[in-house]
Design goal:
Layout: E1 4-7, E2 14-15, H1 17-28, H2 37-42, H3 48-55, H4 59-75, E3 81-82, E4 95-99, H5 104-113, E5 122-124, H6 132-142, E6 150-153
Parallel strand pairs: 1-4, 1-6, 4-5
Antiparallel strand pairs: 2-3
Helix pairs in contact: 1-4, 3-4
Length: 157
């Protein structure tokens, strides 16, 4: 029996990936850096900071771009639309957690704008953990669940 549902955010609960990708393109447009096919294909698989490393930014540049993109991303939170069936999660009576590579503040703002923040028992953004795998292990312990009692819902393998 499933006791715990863990949801990805971008592309699963909210349609935010396109906005974030466009913000990244806009931010690096006038720089010497280019977005590779590998970057496009893997976009969203890692936190933004990890994705920006793929472009080849130095640590100083990485902090600068990461900060600017996050600031713009927060400004665009109201533009984010819910993915299909978000409202149906309200009816599910087991523990629900969001575990995402987006930042916690952004997830919270978007869910609040969509009227869905109360659907989840916990929200974990990329700024709350080191790796999703490690965080899954912590979640299992915190909620005293066995791996077979937990389901992950996402839009990627």
């Amino acid at each position: 029996m499933i006791k715990l549902l863990v949801f990805d955010f971008d592309g699963t609960l909210a349609d935010s990936r396109k906005i974030l990708f466009n913000l990244v393109k806009k931010e690096i447009k006038n720089s010497e850096y280019r977005i590779s096919k590998a970057f496009v294909k893997g976009f969203g698989d890692k936190p933004l900071n990890g994705m920006l490393k793929m472009i080849g930014l130095s640590n100083n540049e990485l902090n600068y771009y990461d900060k600017n993109i996050h600031k713009d991303f927060l400004k665009n939170a109201k533009k984010i639309k819910a993915c299909k069936n978000l409202k149906s999660l309200k009816k599910i009576r087991i523990k629900k957690i969001v575990l995402s590579n987006s930042i916690h503040k952004f997830i919270s703002i978007v869910l609040k704008n969509l009227g869905a923040e109360k659907y989840f028992d916990r929200i974990l953004g990329a700024d709350d953990f080191e790796s999703k795998i490690q965080e899954f292990r912590k979640i299992i312990k915190i909620y005293n669940a066995k791996p077979r009692e937990m389901a992950y819902v996402g839009d990627r393998v």
